[in-house]
Structures are given as C-alpha cells and as structure tokens.
C-alpha cells in the first residue's frame, strides 16, 4: 500500500491487491468520490464483464461492486472507497454452473433450429430444445440484478455470438431509460458497471451517436412509479406488452431466439407481506406467460423457492441459488439518491473525474473510451404551449375538485383509465414532473382504441421545469432536439430536481 504526493501536491492513494483464484475485491463508494481500478496481471471481471489489462476503469456515484477473478490476478486501486475488502467466499461457481446449464439449452435449441444433431443432455432433467427464458426472483438486496448481469455477460462472452435479451421489469431500477420505466434490450457486448446511474450500461436514447457505438436500443414502457403496488394492473399490462414485442421480434429470427432472455424483477415480487401477496403472484404469472419462462431462479429465499416449486415446479426448472455475501443493503435514502443520479444522467450525461492524481485521460467509463467530455450531453430547454402536448395520467384523478361533480356522485376512475391532465388547473402536479413521450399512435384511425396509450412505448423522457399559467406555456427540458408539438405524454410520480 502506498500514499504519495504528485507534483501538484495532491494526495494519491494507490495500492495493489493480489487476489487468489476464485476470490473478489469488494468496494463501496461515498457520494462525490471516484475510484479507479486497473488490472495489472491475470484475468478479472466485474459482474461477468472482463477487465482489459492495463486500462484504468473508473467508478463513481456511490457505486458498489466487486472485481472477481477465476484464476487469480493483481489489481491497482486508486482512490478512497468507504469500504474495501477481499473475500474468497462467493457464489460464483454456482452462478457459473447455472450459466453452463443455460448454455447447454442454447446449444440444443440452435441445433434443433439448424437441423443438426442435438447434443446429449448432460443433466438429470430432460431440458428439451427450448432456449433458456429465465425469471430471476428474490427479496430486496439479494443481488438479483447482479445475477442477471453475470448470466447475461457470460452468455455474450460464450463465443457463440449470442445476443440475449435482458428484460428489466423493476421500475425502481430504470434500466437504460429513467426510473419508472420497464424495458427490454438485446445485449451485444458485456454490460459494464461504473455507476448505479446506469446499472445496465448506457442507452442510445440519451447519449449522442458518437459515444453510443456499442449502446443498446432498448424498448421501454413507462410505468411512472417506483412501486409495483401503485398500479399492479398497469404493470401487468406493460409486462405483457414487452412480452408481445419480444415474441414479434423473434417471429422471423429462429436462430436469434436461441440466445434466450433473462428477466430481472423487483423485490416486491418476492415480498411476502399479506397485502401484496395477490399482486405479486399475479405479477410473477404475468412474467411467466409474457416471456414464456422455462427457468425460475430464486436468489437466497427458501420460502419463495418452495412456493415457486409448488406452483411451477412441474412445468419448468425452479432453482434456488445462493445470495452473495457481497451484496450491499441499500436503504431508501440511497435508492432516492440513485433515482436522482439516473434522471440527471439521462438529461446531462455524466463525466466522472478520475480520483486525484490520475491523469484525466486514459480511463474507461462504462466500457467506453471517454477521453474528454464526450459523456456530457447538452439538453435543450424549450418553451411550448399548453396545447402542444397532450398529457395523460393513468388511473389517478388529481385535478377536478369533487365539488364539480353532481351532488352524491362518486368519482370512479379505473386503474387503467388514461385521464387528460390540464396544466392550467392548479394542483395539476406537472411542475417538475417527468413525462414519458410516447411513440405516435396508429396512423389508421380505425385501428385506434380507448386505452391505446397504455400500449405505446416511450421514445424519450422530458421534465417540466416551469409553468406559466397566465400565458399558457411551459418550459420543457429534453435531452434531444426533436419537436414536441403534437406529441402524447404520460406523467407518473417521478420529479425532476436540479
Ligand atoms: N459481490 C458483490 N460485492 C460488492 N457489491 C455487490 C456484490 N454483489 C452486488 N453488489 C452490490 O450490491 C447492491 C445490490 O445488488 P443488486 O442490485 O444486484 O441487488 P437486487 O436484489 O437486484 O436489489 P433490489 O433490492 O434493488 O432489487 C448493488 O449496488 C450491487 O452492485
């Protein structure tokens, strides 16, 4: 371990760690600090994505992660994490075995499509010729997202050109969009880890083209809230929409289909408080149906495992896998801050400065070589008329006072009903609101239907930063220049904070 002074008199805290085979270096960062990690020798990976030797990878925004090695390695770490330690107790060999079983399913599925001989089934169970479509369930902080990343990255690295689909139905996570969205994306390159503001890597929707060479093209629907219980019916519908889109995509791509898919879920699918019980089983069923799930992985939760065995064990593989001791308990305040980082990154991009003492060039952020300010986005603030965008809220009335109703009449709003929000009415809830801008509705009027809005994917997100009621205008912050006039938007419960 060494601490040294550079010519600029900045304290540089750099030290080397030697990792034994099958062990990992775990770290946690405080706000406003960054950490750089360089692989000096050997092989290492972060949630399944390999590190290139000699490159400094940078981490920030309270990132918590681990560098794992199968064969042993030496890494050089610069910066001051709040927590750092080595551990040789990891569930990685279990995860690798799961990967091998999934890989076998892919290979058999492809052989069946190509009409070549189907390899022998090495396991005990007859696994058929279906590609793996995996649902990952587990309680809060069990490491579901990390497991999904590891399994996806191993598939991408398998050397078979698999392009698995990663599905994120955890709206508090945000995936490649903003928190409140549920999405799916084909994964062509390993998902890098550098900040919780982009747990699943950066998306093409907000980054300019020149930095998004390996960016993903996710399909997103806007749920608009962090919590599943806010509107389970809407969630159910969006899950089914995602599933339908994926089935359409695969219709003419029998080989592509063989890579399978991995579904990351919110912890509320596993929570067993009695009030949420019905909903969560309905949500699990919605996923099983929508994504034609044939493998369920339960991360570290015996009761849920037994429940899933009972419900689905006769139709598919249900497997309990160990939780990693490295998974960090994230509290509500941390999750709140991460939502803020995610929204901010969506609009402004994010450049992480390397820790003091490292040159600001020559580091890698999120898998992209980002020498200068290329991850900085310049969002636009535009003033639009109230009438230019039609804004809906799903299944919640906020505006018209009940006194406007006939005496004795109760307002009945179905959970799924899109209601127009009138910005000119006080209490519209639009000030500082995040809106999802939807894809255009069907151009063929005869194909339209009342709830079509629920089935339109989100093409981008904007924030309303000012409302001028007397002049009927609002200021809208948007990461990309396209015109908003005539667009349809949905507002949820996420707020923009500078
Ligand atoms: N082995 C590890 N070492 C260090 N940090 C880890 C490790 N595994 C996971 N983490 C971190 O712990 C946190 C929680 O993990 P993760 O997001 O995978 O859990 P989750 O079950 O998906 O969470 P949620 O409760 O949000 O659904 C994340 O910040 C993740 O990066």
Automatic annotation (TrEMBL):
An example Gene Ontology molecular-function term: polynucleotide 5'-hydroxyl-kinase activity
Acetylation as UniProt keyword: no
Keywords linked to the UniProt accession: ATP-binding, mRNA processing, Nucleotide-binding, Nucleus
Residues involved in ATP binding: 24, 64, 141-146
Residue ranges constituting the Clp1 C-terminal domain according to the UniProt record: 377-498
Cellular component GO terms held in the UniProt record: mRNA cleavage factor complex
Family: Belongs to the Clp1 family. Clp1 subfamily.
PANTHER family, per database record: CLEAVAGE/POLYADENYLATION FACTOR IA SUBUNIT CLP1P (PTHR12755), POLYRIBONUCLEOTIDE 5'-HYDROXYL-KINASE CLP1 (PTHR12755:SF6)
Protein name, entry field: Polynucleotide 5'-hydroxyl-kinase GRC3
GN (gene name): CLP1
